[in-house]
TrEMBL record:
Organism of origin: gut metagenome
Thioredoxin domain boundaries: 259-400
Chain segments annotated as coiled-coil in the UniProt record: 155-182
Alphabetical UniProt keywords: Coiled coil
Pfam families assigned: AhpC-TSA
A molecular function GO annotation: antioxidant activity
Signal peptide: none
PANTHER family according to UniProt: PROTEIN DIPZ, THIOL:DISULFIDE INTERCHANGE PROTEIN DSBE
Name assigned to this protein: Alkyl hydroperoxide reductase/ Thiol specific antioxidant/ Mal allergen
């Protein structure tokens, strides 16, 4: 890994008829060359330097759900963003043993860069504190960065202190309350600062970026008020993400009123693992567990062994319906096969029949227990022993 950057040469072939003057060639060649230079200038690049990396190192790049590894030489790197729409790129440092023998942990908090097609930005600093410059977007954003970073740093330090005290068994109730108050103070200051800015800059792409990155509660009041010019400008795709997020929040809040204990479980139809339609109503007369999960959810996967034991014990009176969320179809099928999930398996359809929204699912795993009469008995969020206790009690009662 001796070189970081690679230059791709372009060969220009110009043909001439016999009666054309060769004196015309330089002008044509110049025109063609200018076209290549213009194309080069329109590339979307990040040119940067990250302090604290090894002489020969690498970083993990996440962009539009795809990952890549980028070579870094003495902290210097260049990355080309190939998407035609504006978007974000996230840089993480790998866990590895350093030249001095120490170990570097994987960085869970990335460097995040907003990319605008045709624009080059420069990044300098380290993973804890960095500056991005080079276009009008960052000229504006950098006027906010100091306050945003200061509030975020306060929240991060408070979390780190909480974790340190807890790990060393020094976390008293008094210290817990004090740290909680510090965190809330910084979080509320961050919210106020962002809301003040967004409310006064509804014509700014930076406001869309703030709503997308932080997804603050106050965004519900403003996302529809972003000006049409910004909604349909280079932030169009990202604004679409913001709009879908807040519409989903609103829809789930309304749906939550209809999925309370004792209420009829909303019926739905989704495709099962064989591509056939499955409807919840087909299981009326049996207890049903709806398990909302995803292959990307660690706690969902950890819960499968206990779920399989429960299913083996009660499958004559109870059916489990696993509803996969936010997975590609191939990954869903692969995970079902790998973990040998023998119950009914369907995949959510967020663009059609969004059952996760219908049931106001806001965390994973989420399980609903439904009675033979089709009513909601209990909702359990997370991998909680209370779920299995409820199942055991219901099965004992139904056996009498």
């Amino acid at each position: 890994m001796n070189k970081l950057f690679f230059c791709v040469g372009t060969v220009l072939l110009t043909t001439f008829s016999m009666n054309e003057s060769l004196l015309a060639a330089p002008a044509e060649l110049s025109s063609a060359l200018q076209g290549v230079l213009d194309t080069r200038d329109q590339r979307t690049l990040i040119q940067g330097h990250i302090n604290g990396l090894e002489a020969v190192d690498s970083v993990l790049v996440l962009s539009h759900g795809k990952t890549d590894t980028l070579a870094v030489h003495n902290g210097d790197f260049e990355y080309e963003y190939l998407d035609s729409e504006a978007g974000t790129v996230h840089f993480f440092s790998y866990a590895r043993q350093l030249s001095d023998g120490s170990f570097r942990a994987f960085r869970m908090t990335p460097i995040t860069v907003m990319m605008i097609p045709g624009k080059t930005v420069k990044l300098e600093g380290d993973f804890d504190r960095y500056k991005i410059s080079g276009n009008a977007f960052y000229d504006e954003y950098n006027t906010l960065a100091e306050t945003l970073d200061a509030n975020q740093l306060q929240m991060t330090k408070t979390n780190e202190e909480y974790a340190r005290l807890r790990q060393s068994n020094q976390l008293t109730e008094e210290k817990h309350k004090a740290l909680q108050a510090q965190f809330l103070q910084a979080a509320e200051a961050q919210q106020r600062f962002m809301e003040d800015y967004v409310s006064q800059h509804l014509n700014s792409p930076v406001s869309v970026y703030l709503l997308m990155m932080y997804r603050p509660e106050f965004g519900e009041k403003y996302f529809t008020r972003i000006t049409p010019e910004v909604q349909n400008g280079y932030m169009k795709e990202l604004y679409g993400e913001v709009k879908r997020h807040y519409e989903d929040v609103i829809a789930k809040r309304e749906a939550s009123k209809l999925v309370q204990d004792g209420m009829p479980a909303p019926n739905f139809t989704l495709k099962d693992i064989n591509g056939k339609d499955f409807s919840l109503s087909s299981l009326k007369g049996k207890y049903v567990v709806l398990d909302f999960w995803g292959s990307w959810c660690g706690w969902c996967i950890k819960g499968f062994p206990e779920m399989k034991k429960m299913y083996a014990q009660y499958k004559d009176r109870l059916e489990v319906v696993g509803i996969d969320c936010n997975d590609p179809e191939a990954k869903w099928k692969q995970t079902v096969e790998k973990h040998e999930l023998q119950w009914t398996n369907v995949i959510n359809d967020p663009k059609g029949n969004n059952v996760a929204q219908l049931y106001s699912v806001q965390g994973f795993p989420t399980k609903f227990i439904i009675s033979p009469e089709g009513k909601i008995v209990k909702k359990v969020v997370g991998e909680d022993p209370a779920f299995y206790e409820s199942i055991n009690q219901l099965m004992q009662q139904s056996a009498k």
